[in-house]
Amino acid sequence: MPVTLQDVVRQLDRDEPDYEQAAQLGPEVLAHLRQLIQGSNIGLAAKAACLAGTMNADESVPLLELAARHPDPVVRVAAAASAKNLTNMTTSLATIFLDDVDPGVRKWGLRSLEVTHPEGIETKVEKIMNDDPDSGLREQARKVVERMQ
Amino acid sequence: MSNRIAFNPQDRFVVSIGNTLIVTTRTGDTFGHDITGHTADGAFHFTGAKAAFNTVDRFVTTMGTKLIVTTQNGDVFGHEMAGRDIGVPFKFAGSKAAFNAVDRFVVTVGNTLIVITQNGDVFGHDVSGHTIGVPFKFDGSKAAFNAVDRFVVTIGNKLIVTTQNGDVFGHDVSGRTIGPPFKFTGSRMAFNPEDRFVVTVGNTMIVTTQSGAAFGADVTGRDIGPIFRLNPDLSIRLHLKVWTNPTIPIQTMITRMQDVYGTAGIGVVVASRQDLTGANIHTALRDLDVVPTCPAGQLTGEQIQLFNNRDNVGEFDVVAHFVRSTSPVLNGCASHPDNVFGAAITQIASVWTMAHEIGHVLGLRHIAGENTNCPSSIPNCCSTPNFSRLMTGCSTSNIVGTPVFAQSEIDTIRSSSRTRPS
Ligand SMILES: [Zn+2]
Q1: pTM given for the model
Q2: Which CATH code fits B11-229?
Q3: In this predicted complex, what is the ipTM?
Q4: Level-2 CATH architecture, domain B234-421
Q5: What is the mean pLDDT of residues B127-138?
Q6: What's the DSSP call for residue B404?
Q7: Which of A12, A16, A25, A55 to mutate to test the interface with B (most CBs of B within 10 A)?
Q8: Do A14 and B356 make contact, defined as CB atoms within 8 angstroms?
Q9: Gap between the Cα atoms of A93 and A102, Å rounded
């Protein structure tokens, strides 16, 4: 049976969605996530971004790029936070997170680089380590830089 | 102090000024209960003058900040009320009022003192300052002349008549005319024999009983909303820590929580509220790292840090941390350390999320029966959701009306160490 938008919403529109379970709906879900990320319901947009990262599919990166440019920081934070699940994080996606005006997005952008990181992101992280107005983020960036070396 | 209201035999009149319910006694001592949202606080004793303790005192009502006492011979006395203090009595100049044996109810609408007689005639006196105007008779309908009419109160310019069987009728008062009667839709009020006083605070109609339990219902237009317990015998002391203001106002979530917990006889008292939204606060915790699906007792370092912001939270209290988001994205997460009971609520929470998460904190799980014939890969597929229940696992945002607790759930939360005698 094809996975409908309603199937996806039923998984996400809960107080405590289980993203591992929702991912079991399979790759057909990804087509619906774009619609939810672009929709007017901020909660569903954030949850869709979260599921996109959790699924760690090839299509996850463009979906997270879309969410990373969302006007609402709640959606951008969700994208940055779920990017830690990606095995193929790109430099351009990481750059969007690290350049975000919102410290919550930068925090989760840094967190996504703690295990593996794409080529060429080091200078961005060093810039946060040296210049970020948030002292917590400067410290977090310092630890990421240490790990990268 | 107890939050039971007007349960002593010597309690004589119950009226209100602003958000305060006022209970006068035969001894002249006067007690108050502040009403916040849908909850009455414990009683306080007014300082200042004694009021309405003479045996000849017949009716008590309020107008603005004045407590007005009429006597059997028609003399009218007043007290200016200032906060929790009762001013010295003064005698109103001008006309006498409500001294006929047939006078049955006395209420106020705006600056008019209204006297309703046994046969339904309605008389008025305009009151200016400390002077009672000459009586006039209202045109239009008669009011409250049936033997079954039991209580008369007012909200705005509406006269509200409650009958013995709980039917509630209204009359709009405009100028010196009583409008035709209409029947309120919605809840029936004050039909139990033990119901003792009916009073209004704002748009809420309140019924107190002989035992001191009090119930309320909000009046909207010509409709009476669901009845809630105004002074539950148990309560949750809730501390609010606001890292971000959620999309749905916190006060709305509290009122909804009071509505649903009130059905279990449990009040929700806001014990403290701390604003942590400032720029200098730990922004890191605003977007909180949580253990996926929030299993009980399993916490990330950030969750532990969050709950370490304890401040006023007492041993048996419950704390709600309003964060901006969690990762993974949730409406709320009820995991908490062993020694601090509480939950994180996010900006995208529904009106019922806080009530739901605190349900988890008090030991409730998601209800059974919502996942019928689910595929093995998706055991919680929400094929048969039940949106009449607070503890639905399939989205409180789909709840319509006030959700319910099952009796077993009520037993669980009432026996929690976090629901304490009020
Ligand atoms: Zn839940």
Answers
A1: 0.73
A2: 2.120.10
A3: 0.97
A4: 3-Layer(aba) Sandwich (3.40)
A5: 97
A6: B
A7: A16
A8: no
A9: 15
